[in-house]
Amino acid sequence: MNTHDQQFTENIIETIGWGRTLVFGVDEYQTNSIATYLRISGLEATVGSIRDDLEAEPSAGGTEIKSGRVRFESVVCDDYLDSLSLSALDNALSNLVDLVGKNLILRVGHRSQRVGEAAERDRSYWEKRLIKLGLRKHPRYYYAIDYNALELESKGSSITIVMERPPSRLTEEFPLAALAEERDLHMDMMREQGRRSDAHMIRYHKAAAFIREGDRVLDAACGLGYGSHILAANSLAGSIIGIDGSDYAIRYARTAFPGEDAPTFQVGFLPQALKQFDDGTIDFIVSFETLEHLEDPLSFLKECHRVLSPSGRIMTCVPNDWSEADGVDPNPFHFHVYDWGKFHAQLSSYFLLERAFLQTASRKKIAGRWHVSPREWTEVQTSLQPDSEWCVSLAMKSPVLSSRSTVDRAISPYTLNKHLPPYVDFNGQYKNPWLIRGMVSIGLRMGNEEVLCQVAKDIELADSDKADGDAAACILAYAWLSDENYQETPTSLIGMINGHLARLQREPSTPINIRWKVSLLYVSAQIHIATGNRGEAAQFLAKCIGEPYQDYSILLGVKVASAALQLGVMRASDGDLNGARDAWREGLMVGRAATSLDWLREFGEELQLPDFVLRELTSLFDVVTQCATALNTINKLPARPYAIERIKENKSNRIIELTRSDLNNTRSLNSMRIELQEVRASLEQERQEVQKLKYCIHRMKQILGDSAKNSIHE
């Protein structure tokens, strides 16, 4: 199996999950390879018979195949349908859809370039056919298919499509014909094909990436509910509520997306419908193309701020200047014309701007004129105002609690356990535990570094005598280490850290004080190393190693083992091999402590652990392994420089390096893709101008009459 096919097969599992899977393919070897890979991954996979299952006359009931098996949860069809004539295709598609219990992954044009009639069957063609047969686009559609790459598809190129079967009640109560009648007011983009469908669905897919585990999510102005369904399928949200002012929309959503763990839907007008929620009881709000429909959008944003928890997020979008020459939006349902400036000014009234994205489906205004443009979703700096069809932004409610903010509920699903180890006892250890989500935890916190540092400065000044201030000091120190142009100086940072360390030295050695003392000692050493103060750095590393880190958690051992490894390297480079051995042995002792820990004391009785616990343990053993390798190879230095390569080998670091390499490659590809899109857009614009010119010449010929035709040349 080649790399492309292996990626395709991995996508099958990650897109549609586990379940009984039926695989069809025109290439017997490849079809068997896909089925074998799925079996090795734990799925029950069966290879179907094209002749018996797809080329047979469709069954009357549509529930069984020739072998007597009922519908499979998932069906994979690889490189078969595009070779069929139109009449044979009708029959095969009908049979194929009959076999789908829940999911369908279809790939066409992978083995060979499609030509003739088959080449004309683009993505929209296949989507339209499958939707007409009762399927809808899958909520994980854009996990398997890159949105921006859709623009690069050409006639005859390979296409992958992911569909799902909706509840039978949906197609009975809301057939496509009935849905078409409501199209001016309501659209289920999962039952549409083309650019508009892609543009609306991708927003929810992107938004899901910013939902934290356990978040209480509100989809404000949810329409027919397809966005809430996408959020649920692509996140670990604790709950999702969709609200819309249309009785029809909510009735449709409840029919289309039922289930015990599915989103709930209710009728309500904005912003009044938010009054039902207490302060700080929602963690994430998504509301796309809503603000322009509200007479008073600021009142809505104010209510969103009230119901969001500290560090809670809102993701929203508006059309980017859809006005005509008179400055008025021709859409009668739009009360406002937005551009980036107005949009961000209103958001900034209540929230911290975190990220911004430009989105285009088919057109955008450039210098006041509409231009044909390719699909695009690109992150941009929040200070920019790029040309785009829509403005999309993610913003955060400040994690800093005001005097009136009293949000008393768990900030993580794991803090609900009876036994609370120090590493998750946020409520007991911080003045403002919501800082964990907004400022402290990588992956959860504010993604805008400039805003993050400003929040950290405010916290460090206000709470320098608490764990909150200790955490803020670490944030500011690492900001300088990652960007030497950062406005703080190393001297001021060291002075700030020393102030925190002096206070921690005076106070009792509580678990949280130990946690931040170790972190501050370690980051202080990194600043000293970066500025060439090796002696001071070695002292701070030695102090870090000597702290009773296990009184907080074995997880803090990652910092201690890293300090031991680094101190050993410094001593070895100075020729002090015995001192290096002593440091590395300290690192090895951290590994010994991790292998002999009391699991119940450390992690509690619950079998369910936060992901980061085992990930941190993995990182710990990576560093300890480096210490062990250093001890084993130190006698080979300096004669065998390869020993240093062995010591530096670290799985976590390699993953980071590979990720950086992938990101760099992705950035290069994105740059090439954007350039290609711009060329295509320019060519399309020129083509339209040529068409206009041809039309003008044609009209002139008609007006001037037959006698003038010979004197006009194209």
UniProtKB/TrEMBL annotation:
Record keywords: Methyltransferase, Transferase
Keyword set includes Methyltransferase: yes
Superkingdom assignment: Bacteria
CDD domains in UniProt: AdoMet_MTases
Entry's Gene Ontology molecular function annotations: methyltransferase activity
Methyltransferase type domain: residues covered: 218-315
EC number: 2.1.1.-
InterPro entries tied to this protein: Methyltransf_11, SAM-dependent_MTases_sf
GO biological process, one term: methylation
Gene3D superfamilies referenced in this protein's UniProt entry, alphabetically: Vaccinia Virus protein VP39 (3.40.50.150)
Top enzyme class: transferase
SUPFAM superfamilies (UniProt xref): S-adenosyl-L-methionine-dependent methyltransferases
Name assigned to this protein: Class I SAM-dependent methyltransferase
Species of the source: Variovorax dokdonensis
